[in-house]
Amino acid sequence: xxxxxxxxxxxxxxxxxxxxMGGSAIGVGLIFGHFLSGALRNPTASDAQFGRAFIxxxxxxxxxxxxxxxxxxxLFVLK
Length: 79
Fold this sequence. Notes:
Layout: H1 2-41, H2 46-77
Helix pairs in contact: 1-2
């Protein structure tokens, strides 16, 4: 019975890590959405903000990749 509980906990943990990947995707969408909104309001300032938008996207994607790594570790490596 203990093996079944540990197996179920692994799947629950991997599912929770998948929520982190979804949050990362939402974050990337928000970053570019707000960047485009600001660029349309003030096109002259968009060049200065473009690099900062990519830094934000890189950080959000990094967190998503980290969440994916945790999910894979929980499913296949840790036993």
